[in-house]
Design the sequence.
């Protein structure tokens, strides 16, 4: 076997599909892909990036916000990068082509663990002095009407003046999100906080708590505590430095993670990974930010951080340490760029546009990647 053939055998390209999404999605996705391409070139990562349509672009071309061709691309990809989707603005009902792409992808690919880190970054303004935590949010059920029924919607109106919503909690989903949270905590400061509203939702959150406690008990090295969600909202402001990994149900996790991101510096820094057993999808925690779309104002750090989480996931799945190293360098390049007030985006009081910020992160990445002290 020639050297070239041998290296091709052991180093299969990994297919990353990017769905830019709506609003600021195309701008922040482009800036992120620029950094990924720089890492790919500099470190020989073997990533092959392709593109697909979701949201308004897909609606225009295919009559559906998440057409089957897009689903096929996602199923076949090693990793997915999804931009934010303007689901509130879709002009057609979900069952007639205006479905929520994020929800469809999370459900179809069984991306049950939404890991949402929030950390203060040295030199970057934040509302709290110190925070470094991860919210592990259950991603496939809960209070989301579009993902908690086999058929039909979890929301309905028996009369024009009465609206009801069904919240689904299962033992299996509660168990697997807690396993993901415990595994994450074991890699970090070994502290798990289980958040629920079991004092009021005694059956549904009672079930979540029962399962979470049982899983956590299998990790004797973890310090485990329990906090009610309303108290958690206060404690995140009062003593955020205490928390390490917080595990909770879908909607509580969505809301608490936005609060945590804002406290740590802003939604523009809010990365997240949706992970399952076979697929993973990088996706910022925030929405499509229509108020700043197409103005070169958005902070792309959120998708960059999300993508670096995807690289870590791929590194572990495919035993490719170079991907983990790339993720570390990308994170560091973003930290360093943000630490300088002259190279920040407008949400952090800076003057750089999305594109210029992407260039600055790329330049910093190249410096770090070529630094002989880095290994
Ligand atoms: P949003 O998260 O889009 O915006 C909230 C605020 O944060 C806005 O002021 C926005 O300008 C700012 N912001 C968000 N991301 C930013 C970034 N990267 N850089 C700088 N500023 C940023 O929330 P919204 O306005 O309530 O929702 C807009 C649309 O997004 C709605 O259709 C909603 O349904 C959808 N949404 C989608 C997702 C998703 O795709 N994952 C998540 C949340 C909301």
Sequence:
């Amino acid at each position: 076997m020639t050297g070239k053939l041998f290296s091709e055998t052991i180093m299969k390209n990994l297919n990353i599909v990017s769905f830019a999404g709506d609003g600021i999605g195309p701008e922040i996705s482009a800036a992120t892909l620029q950094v990924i391409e720089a890492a790919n070139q500099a470190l020989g990562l073997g990533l092959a990036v392709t593109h697909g349509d979701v949201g308004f672009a897909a609606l225009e071309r295919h009559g559906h916000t998440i057409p089957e061709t897009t689903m096929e691309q996602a199923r076949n990809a090693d990793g997915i990068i999804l931009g934010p989707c303007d689901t509130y603005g879709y002009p057609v009902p979900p069952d007639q082509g205006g479905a929520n792409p994020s929800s469809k992808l999370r459900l179809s690919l069984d991306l049950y663990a939404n890991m949402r880190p929030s950390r203060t970054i040295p030199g970057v303004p934040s509302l709290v002095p110190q925070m470094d935590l991860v919210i592990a949010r259950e991603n496939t059920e809960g209070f989301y009407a579009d993902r908690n029924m086999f058929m039909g919607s979890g929301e309905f109106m028996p009369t024009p003046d009465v609206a009801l919503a069904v919240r689904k909690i299962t033992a299996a989903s509660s168990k697997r999100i807690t396993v993901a949270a415990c595994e994450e905590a074991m890699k970090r400061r070994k502290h798990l906080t289980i958040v629920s509203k079991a004092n009021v939702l005694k059956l549904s959150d009672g079930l979540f708590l029962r399962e979470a406690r049982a899983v956590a008990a299998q990790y004797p090295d973890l310090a485990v505590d329990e906090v009610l969600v309303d108290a958690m909202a206060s404690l995140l402001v009062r003593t955020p430095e205490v928390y390490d990994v917080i595990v909770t149900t879908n909607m509580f996790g969505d809301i608490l993670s936005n609060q945590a991101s804002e406290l740590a510096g802003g939604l523009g820094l809010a990365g997240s990974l949706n992970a399952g057993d076979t697929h993973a999808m990088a996706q910022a925690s925030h929405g499509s930010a229509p108020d700043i779309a197409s103005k070169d104002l958005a902070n792309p750090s959120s998708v960059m951080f999300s993508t670096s989480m995807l690289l870590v996931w791929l590194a572990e799945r495919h035993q490719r340490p170079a991907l983990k190293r790339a993720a570390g360098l990308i994170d560091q390049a973003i930290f360093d760029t943000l630490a300088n007030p002259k190279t920040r985006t407008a949400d952090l009081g800076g003057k750089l546009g999305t594109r210029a910020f992407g260039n600055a992160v790329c330049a910093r990445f190249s410096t770090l990647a070529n630094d002989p002290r880095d290994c």
